[in-house]
Write a structure and sequence with these properties.
Length: 68
């Protein structure tokens, strides 16, 4: 009787621990529609590619004189 109760409690504890270790499913955000000008129904001629706010966004490093 005592061993069957112990096996039951251990199996329940294992099931709880295994479900707690399961990872969360993360869904990728939906892709935004491209930003173009002029808007439809006209043929798009200009498209937004990306933005930058400083030299590091373009891969520009400071010069040797600037680092001194």
């Amino acid at each position: 009787m005592m061993t069957s109760r112990l096996y039951y409690m251990v199996s329940v504890a294992c099931m709880i621990l295994l479900t707690a270790c399961q990872g969360r499913v993360v869904e990728a955000p939906a892709a935004a529609p491209p930003v173009v000008w002029p808007p439809a129904p006209n043929e798009p001629r200009i498209a937004y590619v990306k933005s930058f706010s400083g030299p590091s966004d373009l891969g520009i490093e400071s010069s040797l004189i600037g680092r001194l």
